[in-house]
Amino acid sequence: MISADRIFRDLRRTALQIGLSLALAAPATAQPAADSSYGVTGPVSGYMDFHFNKPETGDGQLDFHRFVLIFSHTFAPRIRFVAELELEHAIVEGLEEKGAVELEQAYVDFLVTRSFNLRAGMLLVPMGIINERHEPPVFNGVERPFVDTVIIPSTWFEAGAGIHGEIGRGVRYRAYVMAPLDAAGFSADEGIRNGRQEGAESNVRHVAYAGRAEYVGTTGLTLGASGWTGRSSFSIPRLDTRVSVAEADARYKTGRLELRGELAQVSITGAAALNSALRLLTGVPPNIARGLRGFYGEAGYRVWAAGPARDLVVFARYENFDTQFRMPDGFLPLKQFDRDAWVSGVTYYPDPDVAVKVDYVVQRNRSGVVKSPNSFNIGLGWWF
């Protein structure tokens, strides 16, 4: 017989995976029984991950990479609040490159119908597989996929508002109006990543639009497509730079076999003028591309599938991620930023909420001078 504790834990894990840590059965002790659905705070959820990373050309490092707490509060049956607070790399110390404290989510949901609901606050951009669902037990590999960090700048969050819901048989959608990227932070190696405003007095002279649709109507299959577009040159006078991000992904699970794949592409219009303007401002040509592209395919197989403490997955993933995929006229690509990687390893689940990961990463690039280092990695991740 399945215990009540196990059922309760499974409910909490499911709520966390879909990005909503909702109030469960515990009544608010300060309220009368008739009002027990109002003013409920909790439960507190979260996830953590702890890594050992050893590049082939350097010393090994231990890093408590993420400590994340997720809070929720139900004001009324149709009004809910969710917040996610994250500490990265264990410590924040002045202006040093130590770590960061980030408010990745803090929004209020107004639940109207199954097909139409309102959401406003600090939102995760609905982009790709990982950006909205990045808890350690839900993906293979110690680190998140390169495509989801270099091309899609996960974790990507911004202030905004929008709608979400589920239509028909298994079609889910999210559509938001958000603050845009700041093109002054773009670079040749990290693409648009350092252009995120992250809700810190974000400039909204021009807003951005983000959306995602998912099909989950077939058992074991999830198909997704995402888009983002916005004018992003507000910090540079007399410049008009528009950024568009398009993405498509698929996940399929049958028996012990799990497959997933993703394709993402970034388009930056006016990249030549942006390069010229940033060179005048900084004295350094940034060599920003007009097109970035990344894709990956992954296969995982449960070689041990006998339940908790006897659950082991082996996997392999190929990735290509190129932040110099298409260059503006007059600019040559930096070949060291056209990269690919093979990531292979195992994920062991002593408990469904705890993942012990080991992998080896083989990286290559198109440069004949600059070498991308291989690495050996061990990780421990959990959620609750």
> In CATH terms, what is the fold-level topology?
Porin
CATH architectural name: Beta Barrel
Largest sheet: 16 strands, antiparallel, barrel
> In CATH, what is the homologous superfamily?
Porin
| CATH top level class name | Mainly Beta
Structural class: mainly beta
One letter per element, helices H and strands E, the order comes to HEEEEEEHEEEEEEHEEEEE
- Helix percent reads under 10%
Radius of gyration (Å): 22 Å
Strand order of the largest sheet: 2-3-4-5-6-7-8-9-10-11-12-13-14-15-16-17
Number of strand elements: 17
Low-confidence stretches: 1-9, 11-34
Number of domains: 1
Shape: globular
How many helices? Answer: 3
- Termini separation (Å)? 22 Å
Mean pLDDT: 90
The amount of beta strand, in percent, is: over 45%
